[in-house]
């Protein structure tokens, strides 16, 4: 993955390039880093991930994982702490926790889990690592071992969790490989994450038997194809004893059979529609529907329409969408897909009407929010776009993409102060305070805002400089 190469290269330059700007990590006698320090290290890594382009930008996939993750985290012992869930475009089976409650999931894990409870079990396991402060403990232990740069250490954690092959590669192998070996989760860490994760899974209403079942499947497949263990097994080593211990715990809990959510099925279908060539994806769904190889027909028809749009076969996509809508008359993913199809057909007026209707039913659904704003921009309705985005920013205040779109609207209107201000807020929500400060400085210098707008920007610039830790500009 691109960001793995970037971070490995950063390891070699760590003493020169990465130490500046990191928080003072306090007293070495602490056994666990303070949460705010841990979070700042995590944000430093997340900024690199976002810049790498490897994070899945599809808002429907991201929101599904976020909703599943928050459902689980709300039943953890630290349900008031800040968690952030994201998806990495990678076909390998893996998930990983970063400092500060950031949890990443590979698309390969979503595709290979056979039930939503299996996917939830892996997320619950990672949440277990977070609430037991395993990453924080390892960071603290390495700090006492006088690793020269905490940023480099945090980078090596990401490499080790996200791409173990690269962490062990020849690039700065003596440094990165040594750190990775020291940062592998211990057996005790894994048992703790299993125990805590299983309780979270149970309290969240999922099938707890999914955890040992999924782990057993991974081990079985590894024996069948020797030498190609899934990434998850390399970073979270499994043993038959561990699985037996999980199974024993499951047997003490009440049996619960839990059906998959429709969203789980549709997100998996959407990811499958993006695999291979467009023609291959269409053939895949055609075969499934023809041979009735599915547990949910609507999700397969949804995937077929997505694949047809990817193939630019809008005529057939329109026909298949009608069949999908007969199965699911009102669902936010279907409404978004229908409006996107109309835009692809060049029917902007009908598409805008469909987006508006969908937003009437699902006002906070980001797929519809993004689609409507982008459609307004593409049809030159700049005032409407800027006003709509201002309204939605109050409902979704942490969404950086809304500010990015709003910046586009303002810039095209010649409103430079507002354009730079909105772009600065977008950078801030992507953990890039340096770029946010630069944009606010440009907004201050733009000279086209009124007194009220200028005052707001100056106050925000001062606040951002304080967060950046620039004593000369407070």
Q: What is the first-to-last residue Cα distance?
A: 39 Å
Shape: flat
Average pLDDT works out at: 84
Give me the strand/helix succession.
HHHHEEEHHHHHHHHHHHHHHHHHHHHHH
Would you identify the regions where 5 or more consecutive residues have pLDDT less than 50?
1-30, 145-149, 166-183
For the sheet with most strands, the description reads: 3 strands, mixed
What is the helical fraction, as a range of percent?
A: 55-70%
Count of alpha/pi helices = 26
Broad structural category? mainly alpha
Give the topology.
Layout: H1 2-12, H2 14-17, H3 35-52, H4 59-73, E1 84-88, E2 95-98, E3 102-106, H5 107-112, H6 116-131, H7 134-144, H8 150-162, H9 164-167, H10 173-183, H11 187-203, H12 210-224, H13 231-235, H14 240-251, H15 262-273, H16 278-290, H17 297-311, H18 314-327, H19 332-344, H20 348-361, H21 366-378, H22 382-395, H23 400-412, H24 416-429, H25 433-446, H26 451-468
Parallel strand pairs: 1-3
Antiparallel strand pairs: 2-3
Concise summary:
The protein is built from 26 helices and 3 strands. 47% of the residues are buried.
List keywords for this structure.
single chain, 474 residues, mainly alpha, Serine Threonine Protein Phosphatase 5, Tetratricopeptide repeat, 2 domains, 3-stranded mixed sheet, 26 helices, 3 strands, disordered N terminus
């Amino acid at each position: 993955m691109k960001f793995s190469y970037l971070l490995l290269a950063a390891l070699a330059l760590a003493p020169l390039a990465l130490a500046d700007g990191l928080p003072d990590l306090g007293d070495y006698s602490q056994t666990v880093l303070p949460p705010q320090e841990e979070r700042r290290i995590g944000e430093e890594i997340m900024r690199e991930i976002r810049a790498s382009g490897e994070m899945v930008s599809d808002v429907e996939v991201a929101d599904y994982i976020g909703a599943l993750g928050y459902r689980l985290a709300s039943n953890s012992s630290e349900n008031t702490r800040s968690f952030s869930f994201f998806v990495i475009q990678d076909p390998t089976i893996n998930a990983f926790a970063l400092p500060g409650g950031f949890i990443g999931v590979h698309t390969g894990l979503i595709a290979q889990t056979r039930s939503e409870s299996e996917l939830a079990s892996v997320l619950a396991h990672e949440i277990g690592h977070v609430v037991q402060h395993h990453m924080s403990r390892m960071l603290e232990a390495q700090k006492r071992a006088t690793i020269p740069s905490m940023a480099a250490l945090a980078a090596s954690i990401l490499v080790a969790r996200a791409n173990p092959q690269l962490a062990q590669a020849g690039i700065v192998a003596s440094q990165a490989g040594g750190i990775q070996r020291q940062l592998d989760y211990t057996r005790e860490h894994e048992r703790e994450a299993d125990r805590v994760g299983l309780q979270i899974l149970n309290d969240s209403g999922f099938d707890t038997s999914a955890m040992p079942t999924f782990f057993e499947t991974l081990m079985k497949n590894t024996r069948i194809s020797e030498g190609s263990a899934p990434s998850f097994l390399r970073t979270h080593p499994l043993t038959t004893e561990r699985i037996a211990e999980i199974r024993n715990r499951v047997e003490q809990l009440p049996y619960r059979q839990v059906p998959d959510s429709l969203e789980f099925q549709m997100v998996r279908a959407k990811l499958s529609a993006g695999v291979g060539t467009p023609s291959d994806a269409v053939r895949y769904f055609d075969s499934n529907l023809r041979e009735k190889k599915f547990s949910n027909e609507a999700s397969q028809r949804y995937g077929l329409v997505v694949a047809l749009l990817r193939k630019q076969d809008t005529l057939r996509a329109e026909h298949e969408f009608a069949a999908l809508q007969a199965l699911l008359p009102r669902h936010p993913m279907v409404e978004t897909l229908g409006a996107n199809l109309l835009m692809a057909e060049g029917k902007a007026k009908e598409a805008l009407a469909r987006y508006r209707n969908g937003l009437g039913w699902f006002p906070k659904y980001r797929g519809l929010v993004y689609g409507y704003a982008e459609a307004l921009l593409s049809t030159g309705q700049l005032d409407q776009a800027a006003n709509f985005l201002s309204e939605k920013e109050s409902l979704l205040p942490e969404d950086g993409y809304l500010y990015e779109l709003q910046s586009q609207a303002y810039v095209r209107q010649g409103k430079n102060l507002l354009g730079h201000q909105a772009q600065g807020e977008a950078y801030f929500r992507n953990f890039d305070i340096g770029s946010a400060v630069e944009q606010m400085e440009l907004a201050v210098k733009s000279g086209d805002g009124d007194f009220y707008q200028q005052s707001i920007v100056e106050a925000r610039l001062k606040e951002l400089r304080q967060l950046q830790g620039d004593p000369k500009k407070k």
